[in-house]
Each structure stands twice: as structure tokens, then as C-alpha cells.
Amino acid sequence: MSTAAGFGLALATGAGFTPSTSVAIFMVFGIGLDDSFVVVNAIDDPLLDAPWYDPALSPLDNDATRVLDSGESVEDVTARRIVRTLRSSGPSITVTTVTDFCAFQC
């Protein structure tokens, strides 16, 4: 929906529709989508929860066990998981963003 709004706004302001414009949507999806794969892979990485890790359980089950057994709140467990995920995936996202910037601006 945002892509359609962006194209509509560009055409409403008088920007021309060129062959490079038709390819732009695929470039935007390709550039933005690779970072989401990195984040999703990091959020399901059981090694991020090494002290609590039980190989018989999935990462989500490990979180549920942590809430039920230790009495931690769901918000605390969720916040800790997000911090670990972003700490793990942040450098990769930064590197891909810098290389994308250099590829298109340099």
C-alpha cells in the first residue's frame, strides 16, 4: 500500500515514469527485505538464550518456561529477547546499509 502511495505521489507531482522507476520497486524490496531475514533469524537463535537454553524446547518454549518458573514478567522476557536480537543482528544490518548506501551514492 505504501508503494502504491509513493508511486501515486510521484506521479501527482509530475515525476515521469521511466524504465528505472519500474525497477525501483524490486530494488526497494530487495534492499529492505534482506534485513528482515537477518532479524528473524536472530530472534529464533537459541544460542542467544544460552544460560536458559534447553535443546528439547523451542526458543519460545524456553521463554514460556522462564516466565512460569522464575516468575519474570512477560514484558521483561520480551524486552530482553528484543535487546539480544538487535544486539546480534545490528552489526549485520549496519554493514548491509552502509554497502547499499555506497553502492547507490558513491
Strand content: under 5%
> What average pLDDT do the residues reach?
79
Overall shape: it is elongated
- The total count of helices amounts to 4
Q: Give the SSE order as H and E letters.
A: HHHH
Low-confidence stretches: none
| Rg measurement, Å | 20 Å
Query: Portion of residues in helices?
Result: over 70%
Descriptive overview:
The structure is a single chain. By secondary structure, the chain is an all-alpha fold. Helix content is 75%, strand content 0%. It contains 4 helices and no strands. It has helices at 2-12, 19-43, 59-70, 74-105. Helix 2 (19-43) runs antiparallel to helix 4 (74-105). The radius of gyration is 20 Å and the shape is elongated.
Q: Could you provide a short overview of the structure?
A:
With 106 residues, the chain is mostly helical. The protein has four helices and no strands.
